[in-house]
């Protein structure tokens, strides 16, 4: 198990040269890597809460994007009765699918959807989402928190069922400081991330499968705190994504501290070295012609 923290922002230099040499190519490749966003980089699957499909609310069976199955709210607790899901723009991440718990004892809001590509998420692909998790604490002995599970489906996990290839979670019952825990094929690690940190302005989560058994997970708090990257093993396949919010009683769609927001989800292929070199060479040749 290897992990490290990465600064959220890194200074950049502009390099000018009249020569195309190995160093210039290396700099260009590095720059191409840094500037290449996931969005638009050959998306395999994509959906966002801003999709007009969700303008009237967020309902089970809806799917405004592509590459994902329809949303399921199965295994959401029926009692107390009420609305456990909705669309909200109250949080820092903007318009978001929002999970709302309604009880301190049975309030599970549960939402998930499948990855429709045959075999699920593939080696060389990255799943990315932006979330804003609940931040409030009810005390050490209150079973209150949230998780994100990458599973083999075919539906949401029931309360207390945590079987998954990879699980990220924050629960008061396990950690009074609201620290993250990440569980994979080798066990559970505590990376030092906190729920208040990733909930303050949201967090971007990138899960890359490096092989049929190895992954790399990066969590980037959007409040400027350092990003965290962990590499490890998992037992696949991963063809379902499940978000769950437990027992954090919500005051409604604008209660950001107790709600669990999800801005978007996408799957993209990782850029290959050859593609990056091609991009770099193209830029260098364009620059040379302009001299």
Describe the structure.
Helix 1 (22-35) packs across helix 3 (273-289). The protein folds into two domains: 18-36 and 272-291, no CATH class; 40-270, Jelly Rolls. It has helices at 22-35, 195-200, 273-289, and strands at residues 2-6, 45-48, 85-88, 96-99, 108-114, 125-132, 145-151, 166-171, 181-184, 187-189, 203-209, 214-221, 227-233, 240-246, 260-269. By secondary structure, it is an alpha+beta fold. Strands 1, 2, 3, 4, 6, 11, 12, 13 and 15 form a nine-stranded antiparallel beta sheet that branches. A six-stranded antiparallel beta sheet has the order 5-14-7-8-9-10, with no helix packed on it. It is globular and about 40 Å long. The longest helix has 17 residues, at 273-289.
- Number of DSSP strand runs: 15
Largest sheet: 9 strands, antiparallel
Mean pLDDT across all amino acids: 82
Which H/E pattern describes the elements?
EHEEEEEEEEEHEEEEEH
List segments where confidence is low: pLDDT < 50 over at least 5 consecutive residues: 6-37, 273-291
The domain count comes to: 2
Please count the helical segments.
3
Helix share, percent: 10-25%
CATH topology of the largest domain: Jelly Rolls
CATH architecture of the largest domain: Sandwich
Topology:
Blueprint: E1 2-6, H1 22-35, E2 45-48, E3 85-88, E4 96-99, E5 108-114, E6 125-132, E7 145-151, E8 166-171, E9 181-184, E10 187-189, H2 195-200, E11 203-209, E12 214-221, E13 227-233, E14 240-246, E15 260-269, H3 273-289
Antiparallel strand pairs: 1-13, 2-15, 3-4, 4-15, 5-14, 6-11, 6-15, 7-8, 7-14, 8-9, 9-10, 11-12, 12-13
């Amino acid at each position: 198990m290897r992990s490290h923290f990465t600064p959220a922002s890194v200074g950049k230099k502009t390099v000018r040269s009249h020569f195309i040499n190995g160093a210039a190519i290396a700099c260009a490749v590095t720059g191409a890597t840094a500037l290449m966003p996931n969005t638009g980089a050959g998306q395999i699957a994509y959906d966002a809460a801003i999709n007009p499909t969700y303008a009237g609310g967020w309902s089970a069976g809806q799917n405004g994007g592509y590459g994902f199955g329809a949303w399921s709210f199965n295994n959401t607790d029926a009692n107390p009765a009420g609305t456990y899901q909705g669309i909200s723009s109250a949080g820092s991440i903007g318009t978001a699918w929002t999970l709302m718990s309604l009880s301190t004892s049975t309030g599970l809001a549960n939402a998930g959807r499948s990855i429709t590509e045959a075999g699920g998420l593939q080696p060389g692909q990255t799943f990315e989402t932006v979330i804003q998790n609940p931040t409030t604490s009810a005390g050490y002995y209150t079973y209150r928190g949230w998780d994100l599970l990458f599973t083999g489906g075919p539906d949401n996990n029931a309360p207390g069922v945590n079987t998954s290839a990879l699980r990220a979670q924050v629960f008061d019952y396990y950690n009074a400081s609201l620290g993250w825990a990440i569980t994979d094929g080798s066990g559970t690690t505590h990376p030092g991330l906190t729920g208040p940190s990733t909930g303050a302005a949201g967090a971007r989560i990138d899960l890359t499968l490096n092989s049929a058994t190895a992954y790399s997970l990066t969590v980037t708090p959007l409040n400027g705190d350092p990003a965290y990257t962990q590499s490890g093993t998992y037992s696949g396949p991963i063809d379902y994504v499940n978000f769950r919010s437990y027992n954090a009683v919500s005051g409604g769609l604008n209660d950001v501290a107790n709600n669990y927001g999800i801005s978007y989800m996408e799957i993209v292929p990782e850029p290959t070295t050859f593609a990056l070199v091609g991009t770099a060479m193209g830029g260098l040749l364009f620059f040379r012609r302009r001299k």
